[in-house]
Design brief:
Layout: E1 65-68, H1 70-78, E2 83-89, H2 95-106, E3 110-114, H3 116-122, E4 132-135, H4 143-153, E5 158-163, H5 168-180, E6 185-189, H6 198-203, E7 213-216, H7 219-227, E8 232-242, E9 252-257, H8 265-270, E10 273-276, H9 288-303
Parallel strand pairs: 2-3, 5-6, 5-9, 6-7, 8-9, 8-10
Antiparallel strand pairs: 1-4, 2-4
Helix pairs in contact: 1-2, 5-9
Length: 304
């Protein structure tokens, strides 16, 4: 599935009249689904999914910082601190709690309504006042920051999108690979995925300090919006086309799925290509971070 096409510098937000709306003229030869909007559209972060009533069973990363108490959590929000998740009681809706929930909504923080017993289990101080927040160990970037980094370098965007990576060592290793492969950033979902913890930072071998990581509520919606900015998406799948037979040049997003379940159905439907990695051994799958590295360097080979 090789294609010849003219390569032009990527400009964030610019679109041609081709089926893809890319700054790359030859991209109209690819098999894109036809119902793509043809007007310029700026990127909008995905909207928050709101409270999660089914989160009474939770696991707090050891490296994350717990904030407890109404004033401490409220001031953390007002100071701009990145909060990964907020836990509040399901039956308490008094004024101070409502104020904290409004601040959480502004920052699109994931909110979980849990039982008082669960809050007691989470609390380290025993004085949580009905509010426990999990603060990120490292700050997140915005998707626009990733696109801007590509534009500053005069390069077509190369982005990793991770669909539900749960192991912090895998996430750190993928961030390290993304940096070394010249990717401009990594996008992860807010729900059902590990965030930026100290373990992730250590596993990245310092790459986290140089590689922007954005976190979004809806990965599939984010992909749809990035398509309007000219990106194509390829995901790893055992039943996909052999990676050497795909055209992976130009503005590209590499999608890597969950360690056990792979890429989710909704995210896979947004992908333009599925790529398989040739395997000769007796087992049929690679670790998520290894698969990311193999596919990333095929993209690097084609881009160079």
């Amino acid at each position: 599935m090789s294609r010849e096409r003219e390569q032009k510098p990527f400009r964030a937000g610019s679109r041609s009249q081709g089926a893809r709306g890319s700054a790359y003229a030859g991209n109209k030869n690819r098999d894109r689904k036809p119902d793509r909007m043809k007007r310029e559209k700026s990127f909008r972060p995905a909207e928050t999914a709101g409270p999660d009533p089914a989160a009474d069973v939770v696991e707090i990363p050891e490296e994350s910082m717990l904030l407890e108490g109404r004033n401490a959590v409220l001031e953390a929000f007002r100071a701009g601190r990145t909060i990964d998740r907020l836990y509040v009681p399901a039956k308490v809706k008094d004024g101070p709690i409502q104020t904290i929930l409004r601040e959480a909504k502004k920052q699109q923080t994931v909110v979980s309504f849990v039982s008082n017993e669960r809050l007691d289990q989470l609390s380290e101080t025993g004085s949580h006042q009905g509010v426990v927040a999990v603060a990120a160990a490292y700050a997140y970037a915005e998707v626009e920051d990733i696109l801007a980094k590509a534009e500053e370098k005069g390069e077509a965007p190369f982005v990793f999108l991770l669909d539900g990576i749960e192991d912090p060592h895998n996430l750190g290793a993928i961030i390290r690979t993304a940096n070394l492969a010249g990717a401009h950033g990594v996008i992860i979902p807010k729900h059902r995925a590990v965030g930026l913890t100290a373990t992730v930072a250590k596993a990245s071998a310092g790459a986290l300090h140089y590689t922007p990581v954005a976190r979004v509520t809806n990965l599939a919606k984010t992909m749809e919006e990035l398509k309007e900015r000219g990106l194509w998406f390829v995901c790893a799948a055992m039943d996909g086309t052999r990676m050497y037979d795909l055209d992976l040049k130009g503005p590209i997003g590499l999608v890597i799925g969950n360690e056990g379940e792979g890429v989710s159905r909704l995210v896979r439907e947004k992908c333009d290509f599925t790529a398989s990695i040739p395997m000769k051994g007796d087992i049929d799958s690679l670790n998520a971070s290894v698969a990311a590295g193999v596919l990333a360097y095929e993209i690097v080979r084609q881009r160079n």
